[in-house]
Amino acid sequence: MSSEKVVVIGQGYVGLPLAMRAVEAGMEVVGLDTDTDRVKRLAAGESFVEDIPADRLGRALGSGRYRPTGEYRVAEGFDICVITVPTPLRDGAPDLSYVERAGVGIGPYLRPGCTVVLESTTYPGTTEELLRPLLESASGLRSPGDFHLGYSPERIDPGNPAWRLENTPKVVSGVDAASRARVDEFYRRIVDRTVVVDSTRVAELTKLIENTFRQVNIALINELAMLSHELGIDVWQAIRAAETKPFGFMPFRPGPGVGGHCLPIDPCYLSWQVKRRLGRQFRFIELANDINHEMPEHVTRRVMAGLNRAGHAVNGSRLLLLGLAYKKNTGDMRDSPAVDVARRLCELGADVRAVEPYAEAHQIPAGVLVVPLSERELRAADAVVVVTDHDVFDYELVTRHARYVFDTRNRCAGPMVERL
Question: Considering the entire predicted model, what is its pTM?
């Protein structure tokens, strides 16, 4: 089995770590991505995913078992294909066009006995109702019977050094018993533990439950933070006290909103399907979305109020934002609330500068100047806003030299610091 040929469609935050693990398990891996620039960078040994350092990518390339490409024909003769493409929202509805293109693209290269696994987050029923017909139509084969088909939700957490692909339990499923067994066999070679469930629908729902849980609880604590501010209560201290309870409580912390490839999107897939199939609203999800989407505007209003107290209008003020990524210690800018905050402040006439050590230049929003974190920049700013709390930031330097800090992440302390 060591010569198995694996195709991973999508070489981003999900697909690239999976491709690297498969190479390290001794498999022949084709990293397929339609972004030609991304393919060129991978072939040159340049990683754009923080969790995959260049030396690890270099070892995979040097082994001769990893081939990045943009051409589906290179997939010919594959044993296993894993689809890890994006599933964004378009006008509030799921956009499965990337999954559809992957199915149509890989379909002609299916052969009897091969396995296709979908990892992209989606609503229950996608694997069987959308992907399977595309694969069958393009290949002339049938599943179950001729080829195996399954679903395994990704659980990648960019920037998390403790929980990586290999030590995070992997939920696996298949359209029949043979498919489940084949999918489980594949993932057991690259992760420490698999969790087998009965159907692809259960696996698809599992992913949505995980992120809906986070979305709803983050919304709860965000609304609590807004109300606590108006009541004059330190919500951060209350959270610290609450988490001393050894049972029945899990701490969530407020922030400027939610972002990335999961929280702003995944619960909407579930809400959309409930409305489409049952004609009902998923009220918790819709309320949570409303609250979390309000947070960048709330942060903007709080910064404006802080400037006003110091006798400054936001128009013309020089603002320094710390972090633009959606979460700390990554350069992932997808749906980042920090970008929303920056855009709003720019539109109000502020001179917005940002310290963002991870993101690439082309990802920086228009009107925002990227600068280093320095005493000079801190002293020159009318306000410093901690939006994404990267660990590399020197927060003591910030509190020593900033005139006013609005901290959405509870990383700074001092008389000039105001917290969310």
Answer: 0.90
Give residue 1's pLDDT. 44
DSSP per residue, 273-298: HHHHHHS---HHHHHHHHHHHHHHHH
Report phi then psi at 134, rounded to 5. Answer: -65, -45
Compute φ and ψ for 7, nearest 5 degrees. -110, 125
Start-to-end Cα distance in the chain? 54
**Can you tell me the distance from the alpha carbon of 197 to that of 209, in angstroms, rounded to the nearest whole number?**
14
Amino acid at 348: L
Distance CA 302, CA 300 (A): 5
pLDDT at 345: 97
How many Cα atoms are found within 13 Å in the side-chain-facing hemisphere of 303? Answer: 33
Report the SS3 class of residue 110: coil
Count of CB atoms situated within 10 Å of the CB of 285 = 22
Q: For residues 124 and 93, is the Cβ–Cβ distance under 8 A?
A: no
H or E stretch including 266? helix 266-278
What number of helices (H) and strands (E) belong to the chain? 14, 16
Q: Indicate if the pLDDT at residue 383 is higher than 50.
A: yes
Which residues are catalytic, by number?
A: 262
